[in-house]
Amino acid sequence: MSNTTAKATEGAENEVYGLVIVSNRLPVDHQTDDDGTTSWRTSPGGLVTALEPVMRENDGAWVGWPGVADQDIEPFDNDGIRIIPVRLSAQELEEYYEGFSNDTLWPLYHDVIAPPTYHREWWESYVDVNRRFAAAAAEIASPGGVVWVQDYQLQLVPRLLRELRPDLVIGFFNHIPFPAYGIYSQLPWRTQIIQGLLGADVIGFQRPADAGNFSRAVRRLLGYNTHGTFIDVPVSSDGPDTLPSGVAARVMTTRRGDVVRSVVAKHFPISIDSQSYEEMARRPDIQARARQIREDLGNPKTIMLGVDRLDYTKGIGHRLKAFGELLAEDRISVEDVTLVQVASPSRERVETYRLLRDEIELTVGRINGDFSTISHQAINYLHHGYPREEMVALYLAADVMLVTALRDGMNLVAKEYVAVRYDNDGVLILSEFAGASDELKQALLINPHDIDGLKDTIMRAVEMPRAERVRRMRALRKRVLENDVAKWSESFLDTLVNGSARFTSSNVHPATRTARGDGS
Ligand code: GDG
Fold first, then answer.
1. Is 421 helix (H, G, I), strand (E, B) or coil?
2. For ligand 1, atom 1, which residue shows the shortest CA distance?
3. pLDDT tens-digit series, residues 223-282
4. What is the CA 182 to chain-centroid distance, rounded?
5. Are 378 and 338 in contact (CB under 8 A)?
């Protein structure tokens, strides 16, 4: 990141930072020990894994909610990252987070797999909380600094932040899909959300299709011109003198003479810290644990594995149905094949998630009741969160990895499985509705709604000759090792900081040219 300066000013009161990440949840968890002392521990999860290395390198600050309600917590340092907590009340958590984020936006953006709930109070809370996050970022970003806002909980922040600090360079990344207009248009606040996002200079999505859906929504709702990945956002200011200074302006004059901010809406597929997964997999203690897992499962010929947050988007029910039918039809037996399903607890205060848990556990109970023997269990169902070491041991032990999402922004589990398999063995079954399928073409791609197709693919995976497994896994590994999370963030930040190839000496607006100081 060439243009980013870290910590422009030192001092407790008015520290400012050249790179600020803003996300709903901070990458730390509050811990209370037995003796009552409290401390912070870095929390696991896709986004944290993704951004931690970039933050350390750039000595940046992270704005977000610390995970405890109704508490004012002072900024502090954690593992080389400055942490800026934003206070949320218990009621805001209910309305802004569990309500609008997880029960309105989440189901809507995942193609209404579950019905979204629309409540005006939830929306009002979403606006209030987004305003607070924007104010917190505005306070600590250095002049002309870079602010990178994460995910669907904070879609109004880019515009609110631009209003407060027009000098900033603002990026936004959407970790979940962006739906087609026919679905998106249900949202009563569809125009406000689009306008909120357009406050950013670069809006990143997981897949080209997501970026396309967003640009179409902008055309339909606001009538702005789009050209490929560029969107012309009219500048409402009165003239060059009132335009903000700094590279953030990105203002240009179109051929028709309109003065516009050129916003990029493009795919930047997220990834993982691939090397660290491989390194962990090579550790003798983790390999011993993987052997132990196989033994504890009764040394089956094939271990199949699913790892998901217990979420209705992940298609856990579909995979259980396929597995149960294969057992019922005697195409597989519990002596030969066992399924380990890690379903980590998630959003347990949202009703849809409680119902999903009941449904999944009923299905698991039925399949185990019908097919397990004293010595062999059909499904090992684990409703826990595990340390990363245990996850890696499970990936190493698994002959077949099942990713059957009905809709998923990317799915990092698929990439983690591939990164771990330095032995070039193992078969990945991957839903074409997960963003990862755009890149991981050598996986066995499936449509999870097609249960017969899924069953045939499971059989193909179970019976796949070693030579084919190795050929496929080699190709998958090349992809995941080359395109890791460092490359993802570099490519996003590079587009954000250095702008796009669209600016030429003839179309850059004079105010932007002066601010850049490069005459180009
Ligand atoms: C969202 C989007 C997108 C799960 N259980 C445990 C555990 N995990 C880890 C996995 C993986 C992460 O959580 C889950 O990431 P996913 O990508 O699979 O899914 P979401 O949580 O839905 O994430 C998704 C992602 O954002 C990033 O942009 O890919 O599409 O929905 O890293 O390993 N980790 C540990 N114990 C567990 O029990 N340690």
1. coil
2. 175
3. 999 999 999 999 875 444 445 544 445 788 888 888 899 999 999 999 998 999 999 999
4. 23
5. yes
- State which ligand 1 atom lies nearest to the alpha carbon of 206: 28
Q: Which has more pLDDT, 517 or 31?
A: 31
Tokens describing residue 487: 């490359």
Please tell me the distance from the alpha carbon of residue 379 to that of residue 58, in angstroms, as a whole number. 45
- DSSP E strands, 124-229: 141-150, 169-173, 202-205, 226-227
**Which value, to the nearest 10 degrees, does the dihedral of the CA atoms of residues 150, 64, 48, 143 take?**
70
**Residue 116 CA to ligand 1 centre (angstroms):** 22
Q: Is the pTM of this model over 0.90?
A: yes
- Minimal CA–CA distance to 119: which of 95, 94, 93? 95
Distance CA 222, CA 197 (A): 13
The verdict on the CB of residue 427 being under 6 Å from ligand 1 is: no
Q: What confidence tens digit (pLDDT) does each residue in 443-456 have?
A: 999 999 999 999 99
Model confidence over 146-178: pLDDT tens digits? 999 999 999 999 999 999 999 999 999 999 999
Phi, then psi, of 190 in degrees rounded to 5: -60, -35
- How far does the centroid of ligand 1 lie from the alpha carbon of residue 410, in Å? 9
For 55-69, 138-152, 164-178, 472-486, which range has the lowest pLDDT when averaged over its residues? 55-69
Q: For residue 260, what are the β-bridge partners? A: 234, 252
Decide: 194 in ligand 1 pocket, CB within 6 A: no
- Nearest atom within ligand 1 for CA of residue 414: 18
Give Cα separations from 344 to 3, 36, 386 (angstroms): 40, 27, 8
Q: Which atom of ligand 1 is nearest to the CA of 412?
A: 17
| The pair of three-digit structure tokens given for residue 153, joined into one six-digit string | 């909980």
